[in-house]
Amino acid sequence: MPVKIGTDLVTFYNPAFWGAGTDRDVAALARADGRAFWTRILDSLHDAGITGLELTFPPFDRAGAVAAFGSVAGLMHELAIRNLEIWSDFFTALDRIPVHEYASAEPQILDQVAAAAHFLAATGGRVLVVGLPCRSTFLSAPPVFVDMAFAAPIASLLNRMGFAAARHGITLAFHTEAHTVACAPRDVDLFMLLTDPRYVGLCPDPAHIILEGGNPTDVLARHVGRVVAMHWKDATRAMPADTPIGPDIHDRHRAYFCELGKGQANFDQMAALLAHAPLRCGPILELDACSNPVPALQRGIAFIHHLPPRDPA
User: Fold this and answer.
1) Contact 243, 136 (CB under 8 A)
2) Residues near 115 by Cβ (< 8 Å), separated by ≥ 6?
3) Residue 18 CA, distance from chain mean position
4) Is-contact 178 239, C-beta < 8 A?
5) What DSSP element (H or E) covers 223?
6) DSSP for residue 96
7) Using N-to-C axis directions, what is the helix angle for 34-48 and 62-69, rounded to 10°?
8) Nearby residues of 67 by Cβ (< 8 Å), 6 or more positions away
9) Are 45 and 82 in contact (CB under 8 A)?
10) How many CB atoms within 10 Å of residue 166?
C-alpha cells in the first residue's frame, strides 16, 4: 500500500496561487473570508493526493483553520470529508523572540507549547516542529558565536518545551532551517548533544542543510534514532557563507530550492536510513511558496512512491 504523504502549508504561501500581489494581500484574503480561504487549501490538498498537514505561521495556522470552520469539530469534519489529517504544527515563537529574552519569556513560551500540543492531541497530530533563531551574518560586529555557552540555554529551554509537549503525547522536534543556529551539520550535532533524547527529536530538512553546505545524508545517518519527522525538499547548491542574514533571508532561500530529485539531496540513501527512524508521520513535502502547488505536489508524491522499497528490519 502506498505510503501516506503530507505537506507543510507554507507550500501555499505564494501570492500567485491566490491571484494576489503580496504576502500581505494573501493575509487579507484569509481575514476577509476564512472559510473560502481554507476550503481552497483543503480542496487543493485533496486534489493533489495529500493526506497529512503541517500547520504553520499565519494565515496558515491552527487559529485560522479553527476560526474558518467555527470550531475544532468543524475543522475536523472538513478534513474528514477530504481524507485529510493533521500531522504536525510548526512553532515559530523562538525565531521571533530575541535569545536574550528567552528567560523572561519562558512562561509564555511554555504556555504556547502546551496550547499547541493540546490542539495536536485533540486533532490526531503527533509532532510539534520548532524553528530556532537565526545566526548573525558572518563578520558582523559584535560577533555572536554558536558555542556551548550560547547553545546551552536554548537547549535547556527546548528540553522544557519537549516536556510540556510530551505531557500531551506530542513529540517536539527542532527543524534544520538554513541560517539558524541549528542547520549546519556541526550545529545540529551540538543541539542533539545538548538536548535530552527523551524530550527533543529532530526534523531534518535536506534542502536547508544543503544551503548551509552540509550533506543531509550524513546528518541523517548520525541522528536517525531521533528523527520523528522529515521535510522532503531539495536544493541545488549551498549559499555563500557571507550571505547577509536579515528579515528577507527565508525569501532568498527560494532561489536555491528545486523539486525532489533535481538537486543535491540523495533521497534514495535517506529513504534507506529513514526505515530505521522513529518516525511519527509520513514524508512531509515542503514546496515553499509554490505558485501552482497541486501538480507540484503530485510530482513530489510520484517521486517518493518511485523510490526503491525499504525493509525496516
Assistant:
1) no
2) none
3) 22
4) yes
5) helix 216-223
6) T
7) 110
8) 34
9) yes
10) 16
CA count, 13 A, side-chain hemisphere, 14: 13
| pTM (2 d.p.) | 0.96
Sign for the pseudo-dihedral over CA of 11, 51, 206, 304: negative
Q: How far apart are CA 179 and CA 137, in angstroms?
A: 9
C-beta separation of 78 from 42 below 8 A: yes
Name residue, grid cell 470550531.
71
C-alpha cell of residue 272: 534507506
Which triple of cell numbers denotes residue 175?
527543524
Q: What residue type is assigned to position 208 of the chain?
A: H
pLDDT digits (tens, 9 = 90+) for 27-69: 999 999 999 999 999 999 999 999 999 999 999 999 999 999 9
Cell for 219?
A: 546528518
One-letter amino acid identity for 294? V
Tell me the pLDDT tens digit for each residue of 238-262: 999 999 999 999 999 999 999 999 9
Q: Rounding to the nearest 10 degrees, give the CA dihedral for residues 161, 211, 242, 173.
A: 0
